[in-house]
Amino acid sequence: MKRIAALFLAILSLTLIMLLPVQAAEFDLVSDGVGMLTDDEYFELNELAMDITEQFQCEVSIVIMDDKGSDDIEEYAKSFYKEYDYGYGEDKSGLMLFLSMEERDYAIIACGYGNTVFTDHGKDVLADRYLLPTLGEDKYYTGFLLYLNQTAKFLKMAENGAPFDIDTDEVQIQKNAKGSFWIKLAICILLPLLIAGIICSIFLRQMKTAVSQKTAGNYIPEGGFNLTLQTDRFLFRTETRSKIEKKSSDGGTSIGSDGFSGKSGKF
Asked: How far apart are CA 117 and CA 55, in angstroms?
């Protein structure tokens, strides 16, 4: 009986040992299918992604593959996300950066709580300020590190009740403040000049003794005149056009019927 129990425990232990690599691979949040990262870089980025995921309970992941084929990059990334069961919790909350190296395509997709944290403006900032400048120079490790650190900042802001968006983007707020400053400065300078110009124009007109008459009465002789011919001629027309301004974005996230929001392009 003891031999049977010992044999059973040995088989169970061996089975658990064989399963460990598979379980660990399932939890890798950085997937490099091209071999762009060194082992140390891969390990560091994966550990950082797992730490962020566990801390904020929203999965952040990076997937690099060679070629997506002819499929749309966003749709391919969404299918990949669902097929390989990415996301944290029941609502599959997460943000995935997906790269296809053949055509240098990228997509950033969010799901669940990730849609709240990573707004449309937030995805634009992640791509334009942090990812594209580095990926365009093939500095992949640097770009991924910046990307993950920034996602942690966005998650922290959302945790504090103020998700990163147009109205909480410090860089955008400063740009708007600078724009307002120049507008105010222009008003302060141009408005007095305009008023001074109007006053000078009035004084100049008062100095002229000969002015044109507004009516033709002074030019008609006492006996009047006989109208012998009357014609109408079209000389010109006035066309007025009004520019239709596009409404600026009010922030938030555009979520599709599939529950995802995303951004994509080339790098």
From this structure: 14
What is the spatial distance between Cα 145 and Cα 131, in angstroms, rounded to a whole number?
9
Question: Do residues 261 and 113 make contact, with C-beta atoms less than 8 angstroms apart?
Answer: no
Rounded Cα–Cα distance for residues 98 and 126 (Å): 13
Check residue 55 and give its pLDDT.
98
> Which tens digits make up the pLDDT trace of 219-246?
666 666 666 666 666 566 666 554 443 4
Q: Is residue 105 part of a domain?
A: yes
Amino acid letter, residue 130: Y
Is residue 216 classed as helix, strand or coil in its secondary structure? coil
Q: How far is Cα 126 from Cα 139, in angstroms, rounded to an integer? A: 15
Has residue 11 been placed in a domain?
A: no
Please give the model's pTM, rounded to 2 decimal places. 0.65
Q: Which residue has the higher pLDDT, 240 or 160?
A: 160
CATH classification of the domain holding 126: 3.10.310.50
Q: How many helices (H) and strands (E) does the chain have?
A: 8, 5
What is the domain count for the chain? Answer: 1
CA 208/CA 255 separation, integer angstroms = 68
Q: Rounded to an integer, what distance in angstroms lies between the CA atom of residue 203 and that of residue 214?
A: 20
Say whether pLDDT at 132 is over 90: yes
- Backbone phi, then psi, for 165, in 5-degree steps? -155, -170
| Mean model confidence pLDDT for the chain | 79
Q: 92-106, 196-210, 233-247: which has the minimum mean pLDDT?
A: 233-247
Between helix 39-56 and helix 140-159 the angle, nearest 10°, is 10
Would you say the C-alpha torsion 35, 38, 40, 44 has a positive or negative sign?
negative
Confidence bin at 9 (pLDDT 50/70/90): very low
